[in-house]
Specification:
The complex is a heterodimer of chains A (221) and B (456). Helices cover 41% and strands 25% of the residues of chain A. Chain A is of the alpha/beta class and 221 residues long. Chain A has two domains: 118 residues, Response regulator (Rossmann fold), CATH 3.40.50; 95 residues, Arc Repressor Mutant, subunit A, CATH 1.10.10.10. Among the domains of chain B are: 154 residues, 2-Layer Sandwich (Beta-Lactamase); 148 residues, Heat Shock Protein 90, CATH 3.30.565. In chain B, 52% of the residues lie in helices and 20% in strands. In chain B, the strands form four sheets. A five-stranded antiparallel β-sheet of chain B has the order 4-3-7-6-5, with helices on one face. In chain B, strands 9-11-12-14-13 form a five-stranded mixed β-sheet. In chain B, strands 1-2 form a two-stranded antiparallel sheet. The radius of gyration of chain B is 51 Å and the shape is rod-shaped. Classes of the chains: A alpha/beta (221), B alpha+beta (456). Chains A and B meet through helix 1, helix 4 and helix 5 of A and helix 5, helix 6, helix 7 and helix 8 of B. The structure holds adenosine-5'-triphosphate (ATP) and magnesium ion.
Chain lengths: 221, 456
């Protein structure tokens, strides 16, 4: 996905950009609302991540301006305030969702996906391998004229594999991608999910191969 | 605050007290004046009668004779059967009439009649005495004519006047009392107007009072406005401070957490990874506590002056599900929505109810395993029931009432991050709406059912 991050704190912005890039997203960073306007004028984004407290104006004004301009790019607000009442007012102002600092990136990604799904946009982020198409936003696999819907973890696992076909991913790495820091999961869980995915991919020419002792990779049949 | 005295009552009593005094004075004055007038009339007639008698006196050779004119007495006849007595005294000798009728003391002088009220033959009488010298100026004889009449007619008139005066006095008093009741009320309407305009405002409305204010109340209202301005400034300062503090703390925490995630991804050794996990958990613990404590403070503040708006419980539940949907999705938890198609209206604070529902649903997600199912339902029965049922680890054998307490967490939490305020918030919100929070382990199978029960 392609993000525009509007955030005045460069340290935070730096780590957010790095972290999102790790998952294969493209991120542009604007420090001020002015810079953001420039970015929006020259590029298309799937999503805007907006910090609500900015040096050259309140992010709320930006939100309202965006809504008035009827731009379709969804906005997820990053806020330091957590009180329920503040959150409600953000949604009223036209944010599509919000997330409180500090945040879990898998949760951020889940929220982005939910927003995109709700708005029905961003069909451009399709991933392809041999005859099979993975639509992460819709959470669907398409091959052989069929559509198979995926559960969230299956989707995230496949996304990792589809983004780097042929590359071997260790069980440990896949676990990091799938489980949050509070989950107590064992490496067996990965085997379970891989087993399920093989069933889902039945009939497609994409295949998950076990590389003994190392992990898994996506190959063409 | 204990009310001491009432301005309305004081005004009313003072005004009606004045009215009572005025009515009494009116009554007395009318009576005195009327009686004087009646007495004066009687005196005039008595004098006319006595004069008529004196005019009939003749003196021949020092001998006084009298031919009593009938008309002199008939003019004294009244409907009240007043009795009339007369006496004519010439040179100390009773010429005619009742000689026990006393001559007033001091005696009348020439041209100067004397009027007197006396007690005579068991009755009260009004008497006139006229002195008239008869005969040649050198050897005149002083003749005194006395005419007396009972006071029955006078008293009847006086009674009549007293009756009328009493009626008018009482009527005046009653009218004045009613008017003072109205006046006391209408003098106080500015108070009611200002009180109303202060009472009608929402719990957070601290704008100055602008209702029309009579001059006497301006200092009071100014003091009130002054006070509210100070309160507003202080609240704004507190809010700014909290915002600023949250921003200052949460932004670096977010930086650290993001960097920790990056590092975690890059590290390979399990023990290093474990250390980073611990670090991230501590950060989450910290931010969760801060957030929950702020929310709890907000709940306490808002329940103090509860807003009662029209809310739809079904929409609130759907909103909570939408908000927490992505979190559930991360664990492949499916949220079944068992919601009525019709709105379920309720009067309450939507923000508080939303906070309660989100905390209950958050628990269900947090304490459930992946690939499980959560059912949220809104039922209209004896009470309105908003329930969240999960298939998670259950409360175990924890003392359920204890879990509602502040900062209380169960023994079943394991690695799950939390501060122990979620159920406290939900319970406080339920109580503020005269409802309650019901928590129980599921009867069949695993998991728990937590419900918000609200009165219909
Ligand atoms: N759905 C549930 N299943 C199992 N246990 C639960 C559930 N909900 C609550 N509990 C138990 O009740 C305790 C109190 O819940 P509460 O929501 O007040 O605190 P918490 O979830 O630990 O922290 P937080 O304030 O962050 O929500 C929890 O610690 C947990 O032990
Ligand atoms: Mg909780």
């Amino acid at each position: 996905m392609r993000f525009l991050l509007i955030e005045d704190n460069t340290k935070l912005a730096g780590s957010v950009v790095e972290r999102l890039q790790l998952d294969g997203h493209a991120v542009d960073h604007a420090e001020t609302l002015d810079a953001a306007e420039t970015c929006l004028a020259v590029a298309d984004y799937d999503l805007i991540l907006l910090d609500i407290m900015l040096p050259d104006g309140d992010g709320r004004d930006f939100l309202q301006q965006q809504r008035r301009a009827a731009t379709s790019t969804p906005v997820i607000v990053i806020t330091a305030r957590s009180a329920v009442s503040d959150r409600v007012s953000l949604l009223d102002l036209g944010a599509d969702d919000y997330i409180t600092k500090p945040f879990d990136f898998s949760e951020l990604e889940a929220r982005c996906r939910a927003v995109l799904r709700r708005l029905g946009g961003a069909a451009a982020n399709l991933l392809e391998h041999s005859d099979t198409i993975l639509d992460p936003t819709a959470g669907e696999l398409r091959f052989d004229g069929r559509t198979v819907s995926l559960r969230n973890r299956e989707l995230r696992l496949l996304e990792v594999l589809f983004k780097s076909p042929g590359q071997v991913f260790s069980k440990g790495h896949l676990m990091d991608r799938l489980f949050s820091f509070a989950d107590e999961a064992s490496e067996n869980a990965i085997e379970v999910y891989v087993g399920r995915l093989r069933k889902r991919l039945d009939g497609s020419s994409a295949r998950i191969e076990t590389v003994r002792g190392l992990g898994y990779r996506l190959v063409a049949r | 605050m204990k009310p001491r005295g009432s301005i309305r009552r004081r005004l009313f009593f003072q005004l009606s007290g004045v009215a009572a005094i005025l009515s009494l004075a009116f009554f007395l004055i009318v009576r005195v004046v009327a009686e004087r007038a009646a007495e004066g009339t009687q005196d005039d007639i008595l004098a006319a009668s006595a004069t008529a008698i004196t005019d009939s006196l003749r003196s021949e050779d020092g001998q006084v004779t009298l031919e009593l004119p009938y008309s002199a007495l008939s003019m004294l006849q009244t409907v009240h059967q007043d009795r009339v007595f007369y006496r004519v005294v010439a040179a100390g000798e009773t010429l005619t009439g009742y000689d026990d009728l006393p001559v007033p003391d001091p005696a009348p002088t020439r041209g100067q009649p004397v009027f007197e009220t006396i007690y005579y033959r068991g009755d009260s009488f009004r008497v006139v005495a006229i002195l008239r010298p008869l005969g040649p100026a050198s050897a005149a004889t002083d003749v005194v004519v006395l005419v007396a009449q009972t006071r029955l007619g006078l008293e009847a008139i006086s009674r009549q006047i007293t009756g009328v005066a009493t009626g008018v006095g009482v009527g005046f008093f009653l009218l004045a009392t009613a008017l003072s009741l109205w006046a006391a009320g209408s003098a106080l309407t500015p108070f009611d107007r200002i009180t109303g305009s202060v009472l009608r405002r929402g719990p957070k409305d601290l704008r100055p009072v602008t209702a029309d204010t009579p001059a006497e109340l301006v200092p009071l209202v100014e003091a009130l406005n002054n006070f509210m301005a100070r309160l507003r400034a202080s609240l704004l300062r507190t809010e700014d401070f909290i915002t600023e503090a949250a921003h200052r703390v949460r932004t670096p925490l977010a930086t650290v957490r993001a960097q920790a995630e990056v590092t975690h991804r890059k590290l390979n050794k399990p023990e290093h990874k474990q250390a980073i996990r611990e670090m991230i958990r501590a950060i989450d613990e910290c931010s969760r506590s801060a957030g929950q404590m702020l929310d709890h403070a907000m709940v306490t503040f808002r329940t103090d002056s509860l807003a009662r708006d029209d809310v739809d419980l079904v929409a609130l539940m759907a909103e909570a599900v939408e908000r927490l949907g992505p979190t559930a999705e991360l664990k492949d938890i499916f949220i079944r929505q068992d919601l009525p198609s019709e709105p379920v209206p309720f009067r309450g604070d939507g923000i508080l109810l939303q906070a309660a529902l989100q905390n209950v649903l958050d628990n269900a997600i947090k304490y459930s395993p992946e690939d499980s199912e959560i059912t949220v339902a809104v039922e209209v029965g004896e009470a309105l029931r908003l329930s969240v049922t999960d298939q998670g680890r259950g409360f175990g054998d924890a003392d359920l009432s204890r879990l509602i307490g502040r900062f209380e967490r169960g023994g079943n939490v394991g690695q799950v991050v939390g501060s122990g305020l979620g159920l406290t918030i939900a319970n406080d919100v339920a109580n503020a709406h005269d409802g309650r929070l019901s928590i129980a382990n599921n009867k069949e199978g695993q998991g728990v059912c937590v419900s918000l029960l609200l009165p219909r």
